[in-house]
Amino acid sequence: MKKIKTILSVTVMVPMFLAVTFHEGRAEQKKEGAPPAIKEFESRSSEWGKHYPKQYETYMQTQKSDEIFDALKKDPALVIMWAGYPFSKDYNKPRGHYYALEDVTNTLRTGAPVDAKTGPLPTACWSCKSPDVPRLVKRDGEMEYFTGKWAKYGNEAVNTIGCADCHDSQSMKLTLTRDYLNRALDKEGRLKSANLTNQDLRSLVCAQCHSEYYFKKTEWEDKGEKKTAMVVTFPWEKGLLAENLEEAYDSYGFSDWTHQLSKAPMLKAQHPDYELFTTGAHYRRGLSCADCHMPVVKDGKNKVTSHNIGSPLDNVATTCLGCHEGTEDDFRKIVQEKLVRKDELANYAMDILAKAHLEAAKAWELGATEVEMKPALQDIRYGQWRWDFAVAGHGSFFHAPEETLRLLGSAINKGQDARLKLRTILAKYKAADYVAPDFSTKEKAQAIIGMDYKKLVEEKETFLKTLKPQWYKEAEAKGVYDPASRKDMQLKTSYK
Q: What angle is formed at CA 273 by the lines to CA 269 and CA 275, rounded to 5 degrees?
């Protein structure tokens, strides 16, 4: 009876909760009067904060989520799994929105450019990190924006995720500011970009960044000059399940990279939060991202939508317990128990997949042929994709626990299938007793793949002392930089 009661209470309470939240938000807006005049493409959140001080104050609280957590140190298998891909250099768990731009600038993944034309990554890597991006797309055109190296916009994309990423400056309504999401919605077909409700947008403004994407190589011509753009694209035309996206990538003949050790054609899941969210109970009950991540909170006698976006577990009383029964301590304990089980499967999958890569490398070394290796490499591709899809999202297991466990189970199966095939190949080449080298620490794993980590750090530190401060100085001279967006910010990285 208790289970039935919980289901019924959620069914009844969710629509009530949504109605109350929406009503309170509208009442707050009414008290504040007509929307203020904020200029189009105003990317400086402090300018919006002059008119919406309470929302801005809560947004600035994302500054408190400032700790660097080195995921490669915790799980060295990741270095092996991502060998040959930038994530093997540096990968930290995400911090608050306040640090989004800072972290993408500081990470070893973006390299150490010395001018606007150098560095390993494309301009597309700014797309989810700064409200300056829509201004640049409008000014330069979408194809030009997506053309060139990341450093090209170093002195233009200088403000971190903020108000202009989600709100129309004239009406304050939620709006999609990245056209690649509109295109993806229309291709997928479940929701059409022209018919989105406010409740749809309370998730989709998040999905602009918290989704799986790839950089689509697109040839174009600019005044007779042939150029190549790397356009952010969501592979949604076949559906939102991991297997749907996998099928889409296969149909394109697409790989993010060829693995340095196994030579497998690999896929890297980015952060498919939205895709996994749509498979979970909260989505099916009509909840949006904002309902749990941006609760209405009290500010004296007033109420305001919190823009201190983070884990709902940081504020269980005003998020989870609006629908669920129990105490805050009980709720956190239950979630923690579930996470332990998920982590157990995820760690098992990582160990299997890392060893599969190393075993494949040994098979190549011994003279295995492409025909012999292809089935095992495809299993590695599919297994790692499913593992990555299950864990790359910031709250995957919370959003969709059953789907997350299903994917991890499939990842383990695919990884084991690959290893069985590789064992047969190794036996053929007289190496049936091959044992993968020890990758139990980040240092050992990076040594296995031949990474000159010290050199990467030295080059990055030079960039941090020279080009990075120059970018902000130039942006301030242009009048596009918001000093408040970096107030009291301290340099924190996993390598310093």
A: 85
Of all helices (H) and strands (E), which one includes residue 242?
helix 242-252
Is-contact 272 211, C-beta < 8 A?
yes
Q: What mean pLDDT, rounded, does the chain reach? A: 92
For residue 177, which of 310, 43, 276, 292 has the smallest C-alpha distance? 43
**Nearest Cα to 156, choosing from 143, 142, 181, 139?**
139
CB 362 within 8 A of CB 431: yes
Closest to 109 (Cα-Cα) out of 76, 84, 144, 127: 84
Confidence (pTM) = 0.91
Per-position DSSP letters for 222-260, written without gaps between them: ETTEEEEEEEEE---TT-SSHHHHHHHHHHHT--SEE-T
How far apart, in whole angstroms, are the C-alpha atoms of residue 439 and residue 437? 6
427 Cα distance to chain centroid: 40
Indicate the helix (H) or strand (E) that contains 201: helix 198-207
What integer pLDDT is reported at residue 25 of this predicted model? 44
β strands within 54-145, DSSP E? none
Q: What are phi and psi of 235, to 5 degrees?
A: -85, 65
Q: What is the reported pLDDT for 33? A: 62
Is residue 202 within 8 A of residue 289, CB to CB? The reply is yes
Q: Given this model, what pLDDT does residue 22 score?
A: 41
Q: Which residue in 283, 316, 246, 240 sits closest to 400, CA to CA? A: 283
Instruction: Give the model's confidence band at 315: pLDDT under 50 very low, under 70 low, under 90 confident, else very high.
Output: confident
* Mean pLDDT, residues 400-405 taken together: 95
Q: How far apart are CA 398 and CA 386, in angstroms?
A: 17
